Amino acid sequence: MSKTNHIKRSLNDKIVNAIIILFFSLFTLLCIFPFYYLFINTISDNDLVSAGAINFLPRGLHINNYIALQNVSDLGSSAIVTVVRTILGTALMVVTSAWAGYLVTKQKMWHRSLWYRCLVITMYFNAGLVPWYMNMMMLGLTNNFLAYIIPGMVAPYNIILVKTYIESIPAALEESAVIDGAGTFKVFTRIIMPLSVPILATIAIFGAVGNWNSFQDSLLLMSNRPDLYTLQHRLYTYLNTSSNLGALMSGSGGVSTQAVQNMLNTKVIKYTISMVTIIPILLVYPFMQRYFVKGIMLGAVKG
Question: Tell me, what CATH number does 154's domain have?
Fold first, then answer.
């Protein structure tokens, strides 16, 4: 048995490594702390939270705030809309990005370079919010659930990532399938898609996070359909309502003790709703992480 070789490090190397480890440890804590702070405030005593006494450790543990969320009007329907939007929007975006990315790698595609340039140019030029809204209105996508799905199906950046990744797949695999009689669609579904799982998982993360966190389209396009509000839009509406209520109550005289207590507890409910909207997307990422780095590296630089 040979002894394991140990690399002898100089004092300067050890100091540099220690500084790097310390820096990234602090950076990690800074990234995690907002979520931790939000969480401990949702499970701590509401009076202490309202008084701003919870900073690092939870006190008076309970889960009543999460149980009380069932009393928040329309939160359940907004959650369903957001979940359906995220699943459908992400799935269709992945499929269309994979198909479009595959097509623009084919030399025989009619005016391939022209279509690819038209796709890329949309990343640099934007007509603006008002023309976008008018376009959506003319297409009949206002107060329509399809407004969450159709515009996001074509994502130029994701198509570019998929295209570059597919170009790194040996052409011999596709050529052998063609010789055996496979058509374009069969080659795509049987060979290209299975080999492109890392990059497809990567863009799926992008799509899922984007769909889950999106609220501007709901705010602008669903003005007459509260039943189609997304979870983020509902949270935005509730936060605005709570802020306005708090300002009104704090500026008026003769407010009862119970009313003041209810006003203060809106802070706790804000924290709890915010936590609920964050948790699902945080749970998705660890399962996709193993594909993320590989997909980004191979999709960004042709091998």
Answer: 1.10.3720.10
Q: How many CB atoms are located within 10 Å of the residue 174 CB?
A: 21
98 CB neighbour count, 10 Å cutoff: 24
Q: Report the range out of 173-187, 193-207, 279-293 with the highest average pLDDT.
A: 193-207
Provide CB contacts within 8 A for 103, sequence distance 6+.
109, 112
CA distance 275 to 27: 21
Q: Is residue 300 over pLDDT 50?
A: no
Residue 241 included in any domain: yes
Q: What is the number of other CB atoms lying within 10 angstroms of the CB of residue 240?
A: 10
Residue type, 139: L
Q: Which tokens is 124 given? A: 């640099």
Owning domain of residue 39 = 9-62
pLDDT at 257 over 60: no
Amino acid, res. 94: V
Tokens of 299: 């999709």
Residue 148 tokens, joined: 């969450």
**Minimal CA–CA distance to 216: which of 151, 125, 166?**
151
Cβ pair 85, 208 in contact under 8 A:
no
Instruction: Tell me which of 105 and 73 has the higher pLDDT.
Output: 105
pTM for the full predicted model: 0.73
Number of domains in the chain: 2
| 149 and 22 inside one domain | no
User: Which pLDDT tens digit goes with each residue over 260-284?
Assistant: 444 446 677 777 777 877 777 777 7
